[in-house]
Amino acid sequence: MIRLIVLIACLSVLACGSNAPRSTPTTPVPDREPTNEGEARDRLEIPLGRSVHLDTAHLTIQFESVPEDSRCPLDVVCAWAGNGAVRLNLVSGAGSSTPSTLNTTLEPQSVVSQGVSIRLLELKPYPVHPGPHDPAAYIAVLQVTPR
Length: 147
Fold this sequence. Notes:
Blueprint: H1 2-19, E1 42-47, E2 51-54, E3 59-69, E4 84-92, E5 97-103, E6 110-113, E7 116-124, E8 139-146
Antiparallel strand pairs: 1-8, 2-3, 3-4, 4-5, 6-7, 7-8
């Protein structure tokens, strides 16, 4: 009975490894100027613990934490790509604060505040096997689009 269970487990691992797509990080989007009102006008890279103020939207985006980083490392074959989540605090010019968690794979991946849409494009650095990296090295890559 134990041999049968071990055989099934081995076959499952082999099947997942051979058929699962390799997880890769998001391709960076180059910085660019707006060409019309609906296009991306900014690509922001905010290190963990830092904030960025958007003068035109009277909004400050604070990158507070990474509550989840289950992304599949680059050199590992996984059945699921995993998810990276960032916790932002959006502070309006009037001082009101709105916490928001955005994800790399799951929803929500964007939030609207003060007339702009904020989308999480990438969470850097992308995990590499083996072992953890320094949590202070996290950078949230956001796209800001006028609404």
